[in-house]
Every structure is written in C-alpha cells, then in structure tokens.
C-alpha cells in the first residue's frame, strides 16, 4: 500500500504531504480544483504518467521484485521523481529508468483508466477459468504442468529446427568457411606456447655475434682457473664454491649451440614465427586457434550430417507438437466446463451494477504457454472495444470482483480514473458497494463526481484551489457532510441536500 505522498514545487501544489491508510480513499472537489492533477502526480512517481512537479515522493509498503535491477527492498520502499531540466526516477535512492520503474510498480499498482481494458488480457482471464477448473477437476493442475513441460520442449525443438533450416540455406557457404579455417590452422599445427619459445630463440639468434664476441673476451677466466684454485689452497680457503661456479659457467657456455644451427634452420625458425604470428593475430593465441580448430571440425562434421539431424529433429518436433496439442485439447475441455461458473459469477456482479449480462466463450488462438484458448467476452454481441466508457468501467469492476471471489485473493493498489462519471445515482451507488468489497483486498484511490461513492469512502480527501494554488486535506465527519451536500445540490446548499448527505454518510459509516 501507499502510506505517504509528498509533492513539492508543482504549478498547482506548492507543497503537499498526505498520509494514507488501507481501504477506499476518494478525492472530491469542484471542477478545476486539481483532482486530476493530484492523481497524475501519484501516477507519475511510479512512471505511469508525467508531472510538472520538481519533487514527488511516495512511500510504499510492499516487497517488490527488484533483484535484477540491483535494488534491495526496504521495510518501506521510497519511490522518487526529481525534475530539473528533465525527470529522473529513483527507488530507495537508486536511479532507474522510467520504463523499468513502471514495470516494477505495475506488479503492485494498477491504473485503471477509462481507455484501458488491461484487466481482460487473455492470461488473466485464463487464470480465473483455471482456478474454477482446478476445483472441478483434481487432475487439471497436473495437465497444465505436463503441458507446460512438453510445450517448453516443443519450443526448444522449434528453435533448433528453425536454426537448422537457416543453416541449411547457407550450408555450402558455412562448410567452405569451416574447411578454410581448419586448413589454415592445420597447415600451421600450432602448439601452446610455441610462439613465445621461438621468439626467445630469435632474440638469441639476433644477438649471436655479440654473444660470441663477449664469450671470447671472457675466455681468459678459464685459463686462470688453476691459478685461482692454487691461490685458494695456499690461503687454506675451501675452493669448492669456486669449482662449482666454474662448472656452472662451463655448462652455460656449452649450452650455447649457435655453431650447430645452420642458416637454413634459422630461416625455418623465422618462417615458423611468421606463420604463428598470423594465427595469433587472427585468433588471439595458439590456444584459442586450437579451440577454434576443434569448433570448426565439429561444425563441419555437423554440416556434413545436417540432413540426418534435420530428419531426426523434424520427427521430434512433430511428436512434441502432437503431445502439446493433445494436452491443450484436454485443458480446453476442462476450461469449457468452467465457463458456466465464471459467467454466472461475472453476471451476478454485473446485475448488481445495473448492467446487462455478458456472454463468455472460448475461442482458438495459436498454441502458446497458456494453451490454445482465447477467452472472449461480449455484451449483446458487441466486442469490448466497442463499449462505452461507463460500460467498460462497470465491466472492469465486475471482473476484478469476480477474480477476487474465485481466486480468493487480491492485493495491491487500484487507482481509478473517473470511475463513476456520467452515471445515475443508483449506478454510482452500485459501484460504491462493489468498491467497498474490493477495498478489503486492495487499497483504492478514486476521483469521485458523485456523492454515493464519496459517502462510502473510508477516507475522504477534499481538493481545493485558492489564489491559483491547490491544496488537499482529509475531511472530518462534519466536513464530509458539507462536501457531500455541495456535490448533491451545487454551491448553494439546500437543507434537503444536507439531510440526504447525512443519510448517505450515516449508512456508509455504519458499514465501515
């Protein structure tokens, strides 16, 4: 739930801070007072709309799924919008894009405008049907699990087959490329670390003349070896260290094999270095070249047997497709049996909302993770997109109420856009009654134009404007009577309006 809202430096609201509780909160006020502006500010801090405020903060008590964005949940998550030259968004002081913010918020907050029919997305309708089917058929959940496993394997087989078909179209080109790389690497036959070893040899070869000259100058040290040994012996100094050192020196000199390397051998080393350098520049190292060699050999072998693989995969694809379709058919049968109960519950709520009954049917869609079913709702054979905003609003409420009743669960925040506009008194009251029931599950924010809904609210907020600046405050009981009276009779409040307001308010309070 949203527990706090703070707005600063908005063209209409200079500075406003509101505290909210669970239940139904209604915002009223004369036209132009700033109700819609306030609602837009609430929506903007969650990335659903834009606002001209410099700062908006909202405290939300809910555990969001934010790990993939690197944001940790707090006991109260703080959503923030800051505007200077452009708007920036934050959750718990960590920056986030508007789109990602909206995706995170949408898991807990639902904005129901008159132009949207998101409640009727197929997956959501199917979830309701599936809950009924689960209660009617103990094996239904097993069917769904089996279907999703098989359909997942079917999807993987489909991707593999599409890749093989794509590869097959250019297999000659791919085979030629793989064979070329194999020949290029095989012709060199590199060994791990070989280039570094040869470069060290090349370095020594390039210094051979200087090395030989230096050793020639050092040759007298060997001629003086016996003299040094004699001097050490006369001095009664253990000469073992000198003997060891001279032995190591002779071994180091003997290890220089320049005299054994011909010009042809040197030329071969230089050619080998050039060939290895060419591979390293292309692949990064001898090890990576060898890894590419193995990969290309496997690819070439696969291209050689692609027809066989395709034949096997096509058989697997068709088998999984058939299994998926068979399971989807069984799921459809259970869903069709659940249609009647869903339609009955939905039409019961529609009856309470003074609307005609709708018909619910199952259509066929392309096979997907939810099966092959498409739930179709129509009113007098009219599609949802052709209904009026008032009809959509009431149908929306009827569905949400049905969903809660059937699933036994509802959670989050509902933000309603002019839910009772252009309705009669009894229609507005019916909406209020349904919203009261939903308020046991959802925190609800609504702008109201009718006294019926406003009288039912657990929390009534009045939006006012004075001197071009808007303000909002929660009304006490006596203030609510006055505001309801204004909504009933206009600016000139009559005694009859006051009595009716008291009657509406008294009825609603007794039920809270």
Short description:
The protein is of the alpha/beta class and 512 residues long.
What topology does this entry show?
Blueprint: E1 2-8, E2 15-19, E3 24-28, H1 35-44, E4 55-60, E5 77-83, E6 87-91, E7 94-96, H2 98-105, E8 109-112, H3 122-136, H4 140-169, H5 171-188, H6 194-206, H7 208-218, H8 220-223, H9 225-234, H10 240-254, H11 263-283, H12 286-304, H13 306-352, E9 359-368, E10 371-378, H14 389-407, E11 412-416, H15 425-438, E12 442-447, H16 451-456, E13 459-466, E14 469-474, H17 477-489, H18 495-511
Parallel strand pairs: 3-12, 3-13, 8-11, 11-12
Antiparallel strand pairs: 1-2, 1-4, 4-5, 5-6, 6-7, 9-10, 13-14
Helix pairs in contact: 3-13, 4-13, 5-12, 6-11, 11-12, 13-14, 14-15, 17-18
Tell the overall outline. Answer: elongated
Q: Residue ranges: pLDDT <50 for 5 or more in a row? A: 507-512
The whole-angstrom Rg is: 41 Å
Q: How many beta-strand segments? A: 14
Structural class determined from secondary elements: alpha/beta
Describe the fold and architecture.
This protein is an alpha/beta fold and 512 residues long. It is 57% helix and 17% strand. It contains 18 helices and 14 strands. It has helices at residues 35-44, 98-105, 122-136, 140-169, 171-188, 194-206, 208-218, 220-223, 225-234, 240-254, 263-283, 286-304, 306-352, 389-407, 425-438, 451-456, 477-489, 495-511; strands spanning 2-8, 15-19, 24-28, 55-60, 77-83, 87-91, 94-96, 109-112, 359-368, 371-378, 412-416, 442-447, 459-466, 469-474. The chain has a six-stranded antiparallel β-sheet. A six-stranded mixed β-sheet has the order 8-11-12-3-13-14. β1 and β2 (15-19) form a beta hairpin. The radius of gyration is 41 Å and the shape is elongated. Mean pLDDT is 89; it is low at 507-512.
């Amino acid at each position: 739930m949203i527990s706090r809202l703070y707005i600063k430096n908005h063209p209409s609201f200079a500075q406003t801070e509101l505290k909210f509780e669970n239940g139904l909160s209604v915002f009223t006020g004369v036209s132009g007072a700033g109700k819609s502006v306030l609602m837009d500010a609430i929506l903007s801090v969650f990335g659903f709309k834009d606002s001209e405020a410099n700062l908006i903060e909202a405290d939300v008590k809910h555990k969001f799924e934010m790990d993939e964005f690197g944001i940790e949940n707090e006991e109260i998550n703080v959503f923030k919008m800051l505007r200077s030259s452009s708007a920036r968004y934050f959750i718990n002081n960590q920056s986030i894009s508007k789109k990602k913010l909206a995706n995170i918020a949408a898991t807990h907050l639902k904005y129901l405008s008159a132009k949207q029919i998101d409640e009727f997305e197929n997956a959501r309708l199917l979830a309701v049907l599936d809950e009924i089917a689960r209660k009617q058929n103990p094996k239904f959940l097993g069917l769904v699990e089996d279907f999703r496993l098989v359909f997942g394997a079917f999807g993987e087989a489909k991707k593999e087959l599409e890749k093989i078909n794509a590869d097959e179209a250019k297999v000659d080109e791919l085979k030629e490329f793989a064979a070329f790389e194999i020949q290029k690497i095989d012709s060199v036959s590199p060994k791990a670390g070989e280039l570094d070893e040869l470069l060290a040899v090349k370095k020594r070869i390039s210094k051979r003349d200087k090395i030989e000259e230096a050793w020639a100058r050092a040759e007298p040290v060997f001629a003086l070896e016996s003299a040094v040994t004699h001097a050490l012996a006369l001095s009664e100094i253990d000469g073992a260290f000198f003997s060891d050192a001279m032995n190591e020196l002779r071994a180091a000199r003997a290890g220089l094999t320049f005299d054994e390397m011909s010009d042809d051998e040197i030329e071969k080393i230089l050619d080998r270095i050039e060939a290895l350098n060419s591979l390293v520049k292309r692949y990064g190292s001898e090890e990576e070249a060898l890894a590419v060699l193995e990969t290309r050999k496997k690819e070439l072998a696969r291209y050689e047997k692609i027809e066989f693989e395709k034949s096997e995969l096509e058989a697997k694809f068709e088998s999984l497709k058939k299994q998926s379709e068979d399971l989807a058919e069984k799921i459809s049968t259970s869903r069709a049996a659940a249609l009647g109960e869903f339609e009955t519950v939905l039409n019961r709520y529609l009856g309470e909302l003074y609307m005609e009954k709708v018909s619910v049917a199952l259509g066929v869609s392309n096979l997907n993770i939810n099966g092959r079913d498409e739930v179709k709702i129509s009113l007098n054979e009219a599609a949802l997109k052709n209904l009026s905003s008032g009809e959509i609003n009431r149908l929306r409420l009827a569905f949400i109420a049905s969903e809660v009743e059937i699933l036994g669960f509802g959670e989050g925040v509902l933000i309603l856009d002019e839910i009772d506009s252009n309705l009669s008194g009894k229609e507005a009251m019916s909406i209020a009654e349904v919203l009261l029931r939903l308020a046991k599950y959802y925190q609800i924010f609504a702008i109201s134009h009718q006294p019926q809904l406003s009288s039912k609210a657990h929390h009534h907020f009045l939006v006012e404007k004075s001197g071009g600046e808007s303000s909002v405050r929660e009304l006490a009981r006596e203030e609510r009577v006055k505001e309801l009276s204004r909504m009933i009779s206009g600016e000139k409040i009559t005694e009859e309006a006051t009595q009716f307001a008291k009657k509406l308010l008294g009825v609603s309070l007794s039920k809270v």
